[in-house]
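Many introductory courses stop at the sequence. We go one step further.
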Amino acid sequence: MRALIAQARLAGLVLLLPVLLAACGFHLRGSVVLPPVLKVTLLQASNPWEGMAAALRAELESAGARVTSDPDEATAVLKVIGERSLRRVLSVGSGGKASEYELFEEVTFAVYDPRGRVLVEPQTLGMTRDLVFDENRLLGKVSEADELRELMHRALARQIITRVRTRLQAHEPASS
């Protein structure tokens, strides 16, 4: 009898948990919500196949946009004005060698309509992450740093799309 009551309580808790999570605003991270103006995007960057541009391309496409190289069919131009990638020593071990680094990624972007009018003014976003470094596991740590930078690029790309959506919604006339 006690086991039956315990199972009923557990089942009730399992059913109540999603309701409580939804009530507090929690939702699983999926693709970002794409602003309509970015449905067909011309992505301009110094190298459109690497770094932030590659991450932006992947995030735009996963959100349902089509990235084009033809300015005539673009509904918007997303320009990566600049990007910086830095590594700074945070701590040094007893042997005098770096044992922890701070990775820093920064991107400056702007959005224009096809006629060149500014839709989103140039702005800069940045992100930092710490990386514990062990020189005895050099290959693994180098690979981990590369993977961490790629994750930072993807996170910054999502932030850019969210920032564009928010800026454009703020300038849209209120519908009645």
